[in-house]
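Notes taken during the Thursday session

The instructor put the following on the board and asked us to keep it in front of us for the whole hour. The protein is ISL3 family transposase. We were told not to look anything up and to reason only from what is written here. First, the residues (401 in total):
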Amino acid sequence: MNANLSSLFWEGFTVDSFTHSAPDALLITLRPDPGFAPSCRRCGCSDCAVHDVSVRRVRERDLLHWRVTLQLPVRRLRCFRCGIVTESISWLPERQRYTSSLATWVESLTRLLPVKHVAQLTGLHWHTIKNIDYRRMLRELREPERHTVRRLMLDEFALFKGHRYATVVVDADTQQVLWVGEGRSRVAFRPFFTWLGSEGCAAIESVAMDMNTALDLEVREQCPQAEVVYDLFHVVAKFGREVIDRVRVDQANQLRDNKKARKVIKRSRWLLLRNPENLPEGHEVKLAELLEANQPLNTVYVMKSALKELWYAPDKKVAQRRWNEWYRQSQESGIKALQQFAEKLKGYMSGIIASATHRLNTSVLEGMNNRIKVIKRMAYGYRDNDYFFMKIKAAFPGKAR
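Then, after some discussion, the predicted structure tokens were revealed:
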């Protein structure tokens, strides 16, 4: 390799020798280019004396099937401005054991593949891949504009098995993730408001969340002027778990002597929980037959549809009227699980009625939560929560206002 070509790849150095250290490994030894004056890494001054020299080995990007390692002398210079300092090498990041071209290659891979797979492909350590990707995201992510945030969406997701959770805060207008923190308590959530600042807290108009009392109380304390809006998806999902599932199991237990009918009801969970428009072809008939044959299941299924209508009321007055009617019907149904759910929901009605004024798209929030689960699953879990949270922010950089 001639001097011009080696300078194109490794500015300031020329190739001294090649060595096949293994069948699939190539060691390239470099020496300083006598026509290139070393410069100070801090101030850029090139009028420096060499203080000492150390030999360093660094990984370069693979060449065909060879793993390439560079061996080069790195000089410490005596700069009259900065003192003793390492020379500036344009293609070698400071204090790293890999070249800039290798880092660029790894960055392109981590956009598409899990860290574990990139580590296997490149032969680099998991933490090295993580650090390269983390620096890329720090460089590319834009700082949220705190003073323009007016509407928030809050959600929580499981970090690991064993009831460990994290809370994510999203700008409802730009869909940018503003903050992610471990835990779902008031104390865990409070650093977000510290980051937002007093002026930012005062500008918040509405906050969408599930029925988490801790987050609710913290929002009301930090942003007393904001209206809390409870998330449609979470309330309906809770209705499915606490009412529909309970009634389905009770009805199945009453049919112990009729194994065929009991089997139909036991296997009807997703038929009852899915929205009618999402049912596979032909399942509408099965659902109609099931509801016609079982009055309690028919009642709670209809009440689920009526519950959703609370979020689509044109104003608060209509929303209140719909709630009053829904609550009355639940108490007259004679279904214990439905009555108990309605009693619990009564304490959260202000946050449901607020949706008539503050239209927050809850499907966006749930879609983002599903994407977070995919990010976590692709990595087979993350060893570093800060890195995981940064991946979430990078996945939702937001859109222009």
